């Protein structure tokens, strides 16, 4: 009918064509040389002569073309053909092609058929062994079960074993692909995490010096006073030298043992006094109050960097007044608090990108802590609570 889609079977596999052709040619040779399975005098032979075997032979050869694309249909049709072959003189090539159809139906068929066919052929083998022996009571009757087992159950069991190994190999391949994919995802995440860490370190180490340079250079340009300009230039030079040293140490770390530069040791809370002195030299009025005792190294680094960035922000944005830095241990947490005057600023200020706030928040989050920053009355307060779960010792 017009408009109806006609479903077409896939083209037979080339190997299946070779199997069908080989089975057909082999069967024809057996017919030509009159090599049948049973003699014409056998009581079961209803169609005498070598030529009646050609019909089941041709049908089975055609079924071999479908052994991979339509295994269940091929097996059902082949079963009818091999049944018809039993009432002729028989052909060894037909029997071999039928065994291959049983094998292919288990190997390439749906999972339900693959499980069902070995059970059915196994029951037929048992029935073919027990029933004839119970009826005829002669040892020769057991050969019927042997023949059924060789022709049907043996190929089905072999197909099941091969299919099981194939499925196991496919599962292993999928697991390997998933493992490789997870490894690639982990690698990408590690690269992103390392890039974020490098960005935080670069910002925290250099931004303080560059902010001081920007503020003092603006002051030197806006105030026409030789002493003020000289003092500003002196501060600019000191911060330039310190910033260049920090940059060189960071490059040494990134080169990972190249030998050009020794990597810098991670800053500790013992260096807060020097950090505060540097902020005072840049014009900030800073008071420091801290005695947290021993804290884990990751917490120590995060706290130092948060204080450093907070002082940098105070240098760039705070109004004149006192900046207070407090560190204290409270209920298993290291509490870091930096407060600076908040409001309109008349003097020069350095531009900000808010990357410092992002970096401080990331540092606190990596340790499972909390971070807050914002106006608190007349003060701008930065507060971080960092867990001391590791190494929380007096």
Could you characterize what this model shows?
The chain is α+β, with helices and mostly antiparallel strands. The chain has 2 domains: 14-177, no CATH class; 268-394, 2-Layer Sandwich (Heat Shock Protein 90), CATH 3.30.565.10. It is built from 10 helices and 5 strands. The chain has helices at residues 14-32, 54-64, 71-85, 92-108, 111-136, 142-222, 226-254, 272-281, 297-317, 355-366, and strands at 285-290, 322-330, 333-341, 370-376, 379-387. The chain has a 5-stranded mixed β-sheet, covered by helices on one side. Helix 9 links the parallel strand 1 (285-290) and strand 2. Helix 2 (54-64) packs parallel to helix 4 (92-108) and helix 8 runs parallel beside helix 9. The chain is rod-shaped and about 130 Å long. The chain starts with 13 loop residues before the first helix and ends in a 7-residue tail after the last strand. Mean pLDDT is 83; it is low at 258-263.
């Amino acid at each position: 009918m017009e408009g109806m889609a006609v479903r077409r079977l896939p083209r037979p596999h080339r190997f299946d064509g070779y199997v069908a052709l080989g089975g057909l040619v082999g069967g024809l040779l057996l017919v030509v040389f009159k090599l049948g399975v049973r003699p014409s005098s056998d009581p079961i032979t209803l169609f005498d002569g070598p030529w009646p075997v050609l019909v089941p032979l041709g049908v089975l050869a055609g079924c071999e073309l479908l052994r991979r694309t339509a295994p269940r249909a091929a097996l059902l049709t082949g079963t009818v053909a091999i049944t018809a072959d039993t009432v002729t003189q028989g052909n060894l090539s037909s029997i071999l092609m039928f065994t291959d159809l049983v094998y292919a139906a288990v190997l390439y068929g749906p999972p339900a058929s693959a499980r069902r066919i070995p059970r059915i052929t196994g029951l037929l083998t048992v029935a073919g062994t027990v029933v004839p022996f119970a009826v005829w009571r002669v040892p020769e009757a057991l050969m019927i079960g042997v023949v059924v087992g060789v022709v049907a159950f043996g190929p089905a069991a072999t197909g099941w074993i091969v299919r099981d190994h194939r499925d196991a190999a496919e599962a292993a391949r999928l697991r390997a692909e998933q493992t490789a994919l997870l490894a690639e995802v982990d690698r990408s995440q590690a690269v992103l995490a390392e890039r974020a860490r490098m960005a935080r370190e670069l910002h925290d180490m250099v931004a303080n010096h560059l902010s001081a340079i920007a503020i003092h250079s603006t002051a030197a340009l806006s105030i026409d006073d030789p002493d003020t300009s000289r003092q500003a230039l002196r501060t600019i030079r000191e911060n330039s030298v310190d910033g260049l040293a920090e940059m060189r140490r960071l490059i040494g770390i990134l080169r990972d043992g190249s030998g050009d530069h020794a990597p810098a040791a991670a800053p500790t809370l013992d260096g807060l006094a020097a950090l505060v002195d540097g902020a005072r030299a840049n014009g900030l009025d800073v008071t420091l109050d801290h005695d947290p005792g021993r804290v884990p190294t990751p917490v120590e680094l995060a706290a130092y960097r948060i204080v450093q960035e907070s002082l940098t922000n105070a240098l760039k944005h705070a109004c004149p007044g006192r900046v207070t830095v407090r560190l204290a241990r409270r209920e298993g947490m290291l509490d870091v608090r930096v407060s600076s005057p908040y409001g309109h600023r008349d003097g020069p200020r350095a531009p900000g990108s808010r990357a410092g706030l992002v970096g401080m928040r990331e540092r606190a989050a990596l340790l499972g802590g909390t971070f807050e920053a914002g106006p608190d009355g007349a003060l701008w307060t930065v507060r971080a609570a960092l867990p001391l779960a590791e190494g929380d010792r007096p």
